[in-house]
From TrEMBL:
Organism (species): Saccharopolyspora montiporae
Coiled-coil blocks: none
GO CC terms, sorted: cytosol
Pfam families, alphabetized: UvrD_C_2 (PF13538)
GO biological process entries: recombinational repair
Keyword ATP-binding: yes
Keywords per UniProt: ATP-binding, Helicase, Hydrolase, Nucleotide-binding
Protein name stated in the entry: AAA family ATPase
Domain UvrD-like helicase ATP-binding intervals: 230-644
Length: 800
């Protein structure tokens, strides 16, 4: 008879057998999980308690040893870093070595600090008697032939911890989950995969889902936590999928897409460190609220070299503080905007009606229509971006003007040197240069876009083929208005269309790079010679560092990671790009991301059923075909770890109204709290809302509540609640996620979760845009425990 060894199995939570059910669903068998049972107090039970206490003590001893090792490593690394920083002067070679060491020790210290909490969380016992502990990083026993003390969760040896099942044990006899608090082992639970052993009376088997359920049922804090200790098999397969190509992860609400995406970033950086450290990894989220919600996950896994950004944050120097209406954002996000922008740029390449007169050398000179037309055609034929084509236009114009001056002076009397001189003088003449430049000016993206969006005539001209009157009216705004996220994709496109005439800067960069490379090769050569003399066996510098990498590090002595450098460089291309809530991106946003990832090494996670943006995706194929045709892989997540069954049943009605073919993910647990609905008179909505919020806050204690309202009620509801319940710290800004209650519009709750969610006026949410039902589906699926619906207007059919 198996015993229950968990002290704190979750109370009201009931598993729905989903985990076990997956075996029959054909997704691979799962281990037999031995359920907790209530037993009469007997001598057997007392014995088992004693066994349990002994096991905890043994684990504590081991875990303490690991922390001891961690402390030693920290001390050692700190000492080395201090020594390195204390050194000054020396040869260029010594300085290079110092820079490399400083960077290495700093990164190592960050990693060692990040793993303090939950250092070791699991163990696997193999058939051959070997036992491995699994944790947040790898630790080895140097005094014992580098025997592993702790296996990094990302290492191949840790895989069975996540994947082994009773039917496919992979040599694993038992899997143990450790529950720790700081450095203390509080409890453990075992899954016996070797059923023969279990039947023979091995009595340390536990309810396998308890650790997972305890995690899922915990109160939310406003910050996403890592799931490293409880990654499920279907998630593990995605996390460890290969680096190359486009992988789409489709999954309903709460299936762990965000969690998987972030753990995949950590896994890829661990496994392909050299490749990805150079180019960096970009994680794209839908808005800054979401980014701050997930911001702690990667640092807690010891990874700091990832750039987290929205698409709107990818243009250095621009902060998108403005907001567009859903319809304006949709228009700005259309692929056809490329043509509008191209036309806007072409509109800036002008020819005079007849001619422009300037004075040169006290004589009138004509910039003629025919010359300008020929120069423009030549520049356009080159297909160079506007600012690079400008050189061709200018050359052609100055050539025509030189001829004009030469004709006036008498061409036959002039030789080549005279012509060169005239050309130089023309170029140096400010008046002439200004007149030529006015026809084909040097432009910046912000200038072109601001001019275009604030000028009805410019919009009419550029948009004549692609925008109707109403659409142009939607785009028109004040000159100098704040940039919006949708504008950023337009600016990025314009940067491509305009190009940057950086010929001189590039030549200087190339020269520096050549010098650095030559120098780095020299340094490596000297280091190698020293090492050969010192120790034949030791790992050589050149084994871990090639001249190119060394040169790159040389060039960035300021200790910047690839992510930091990437944030400052619009043209940076990443080693891997991960996009969360990928269904929301517009065609223009995809163009930005594809430019940042020419290798197409990408992970895109999202849910087509949750698409709220009018310009968002309705199928993955439609998004990806233009870039990779059908060369992309699809992985699906099917289990909902967030939303309890009671709430998901309700949300499923909305989903089936959206698309009868879409299946809601199966909830892994139920909470025992059926969702409630309350109809109130419109005039009482405010008072009832205050009451409902107080009631819910009392229910969830330390947890978090979100009040999700239609955009037009956002301000009013926020003010009302903040005034009525000041002591509850009702946040009204997305950045207030950590306050007990926060009032948000649907767009802002995308990707987030709360213990309790109160949806106000769902009919107004569904009526807001064409994607209103998708929005309602998102709002309903944010709760981990409780859901309430408050309304004065009749409920949408799906909720009745
Ligand atoms: N294996 C796991 N162990 C513990 N918690 C998990 C696991 N998988 C998912 N979760 C938890 O489930 C919740 C939902 O996960 P996540 O936010 O990643 O889902 P999602 O698919 O991105 O949802 P949505 O599409 O609704 O934004 C989170 O609290 C996450 O930590």
């Amino acid at each position: 008879m198996p015993v229950r060894c968990t002290a704190d199995a979750p109370g009201p939570v009931r598993t729905r057998g989903i985990l076990a059910g997956r075996a029959s669903a054909g997704r691979g068998p799962v281990p037999v999980r031995i359920r907790p049972e209530v037993e009469p107090l007997s001598s057997t039970r007392v014995d088992r308690e004693a066994v349990r206490t002994r096991e905890i003590a043994a684990e504590q001893e081991y875990v303490s040893k690991l922390y001891g090792k961690l402390d030693l490593l920290r001390e050692e690394t700190t000492r080395r870093l201090r020594e390195t920083l204390g050194q000054t002067g020396g040869s260029p070679q010594a300085r290079t070595e110092r820079d490399i060491s400083t960077r290495m020790y700093t990164e190592r210290l960050t990693q060692l600090s990040a793993v303090e909490h939950g250092l070791c969380f699991g163990r696997i016992d193999q058939d051959d008697g070997e036992t491995f502990h699994i944790g947040r990083l790898g630790l080895f026993d140097e005094d014992n032939d580098y025997e592993p003390l702790l296996i990094d969760w990302r290492a191949p040896a840790a895989r069975p911890f996540y994947l082994a099942t009773a039917a496919a044990r992979d040599g694993v006899r038992l899997r143990r989950h450790l529950r720790t608090s700081w450095r203390q082992v509080r409890d453990f639970e075992d899954e016996i995969l070797d059923l023969d052993a279990a039947e023979q009376g091995q009595d340390l088997g536990l309810a396998g889902e308890a650790t997972l359920l305890a995690r899922l049922d915990a109160r939310r804090t406003g910050q996403m936590q890592d799931i490293v200790a409880t990654i499920q098999a279907e998630q593990d397969r995605i996390i460890r999928a290969g680096l190359n190509g486009v992988l789409v992860v489709q999954g309903g609400p709460g299936t762990g897409k965000t969690a998987v995406a972030l753990h995949r970033a950590a896994y890829l950086l661990y496994t392909f460190r050299e490749q990805l450290t150079k180019r960096g990894v970009l994680v794209v989220g839908p808005n800054t609220t979401f980014l701050s919600y997930i911001g702690q996950v990667l640092p807690s896994l010891g990874e700091t070299g990832v750039l987290l950004s929205t698409v709107g944050g990818l243009y250095p120097g621009i902060t998108a503080t403005g907001a567009d209406s859903a319809r304006t954002a949709e228009i700005k996000g259309r692929e056809s905007m490329v043509k509008v922008l191209t036309a806007a740029v072409r509109d800036r390449q002008q020819v005079p009606k007849d001619h422009v007169e300037v004075t040169f050398d006290h004589e009138p000179l004509h910039l003629r229509k025919s010359d300008a037309t020929a120069a423009r055609a030549k520049a356009r034929r080159s297909r160079k971006p506007h600012n690079l084509g400008r050189r061709i236009f200018r050359d052609a114009m100055f050539e025509a003007l030189t001829t004009q001056v030469a004709d006036r002076l008498g061409r036959d009397l002039l030789d080549r040197r005279d012509l060169d001189e005239i050309r130089q003088e023309l170029r140096a003449d400010a008046g002439v240069a200004a007149a030529v430049d006015a026809l084909w000016p040097e432009l910046t993206p912000t200038q072109v876009l601001d001019d275009l969006l604030s000028d009805a005539t410019a919009l009419r001209s550029a948009g004549r083929k692609h925008l109707d009157d109403d659409e142009r009216a939607q785009l028109l705004r004040e000159r100098g208005a704040a940039w919006t996220p949708a504008d950023v994709a337009l600016l990025d496109e314009l940067a491509e269309l305009l190009g940057e005439d950086d010929t001189q800067a590039q030549a200087e960069r190339d020269r520096q790079q050549r010098e650095e490379l030559a120098y780095a090769q020299g340094v490596l050569h000297i280091m190698e010679q020293d090492e050969e003399i010192a120790d034949e066996e030791r790992l050589r510098v050149s084994d871990v560092l090639d001249a190119e990498l060394l040169a790159e590090r040389q060039g960035t002595r300021s200790d910047m990671t690839a992510a930091q450098r990437a944030a400052e460089d619009r043209t940076w291309t990443f080693g891997h790009v991960i996009v969360d809530e990928a269904q929301e991106l517009s065609a223009m946003a995809w163009r930005v991301l594809m430019r940042r990832c020419p290798s197409r090494s990408m992970t895109l996670v999202g849910d087509i059923a949750q698409t709220g943006a009018l310009g968002g995706a309705s199928s993955w194929d439609e998004v990806l075909h233009p870039y990779v045709k059908d060369r992309w892989k699809l992985a699906e997540l099917t289990v909902n770890y967030r939303t309890p069954a009671e709430i998901m049943d309700l949300a499923a009605n909305v989903l089936s109204e959206l698309d009868t073919d879409l299946a809601a993910p199966s909830s892994v647990r139920s909470s025992g709290h059926p969702p409630w609905t309350r109809e109130v008179a419109e005039r009482d909505l405010g008072t009832e809302l205050v009451q409902a919020v107080s009631g819910e806050l009392a229910e969830i204690g330390e947890g978090r509540l979100a009040v999700v309202v239609p955009p037009h009620l956002l301000e009013r509801a926020g003010e009302r609640l903040a005034a009525a319940l000041p002591e509850q710290v009702v946040g009204t800004e997305p950045d207030d996620l950590e306050s007990p209650a926060v009032v948000l519009a649907v767009e802002q709750v995308k990707g987030l979760e709360f213990d309790s969610v109160l949806v106000v006026e769902p009919a107004a949410i569904t009526g807001e845009t064409e994607r209103g039902l998708n929005d309602l589906y998102v709002a309903l699926t944010r709760a981990t425990q409780r859901l309430g619906i408050l309304h004065s207007a009749p409920l949408p059919a799906a909720l009745r």
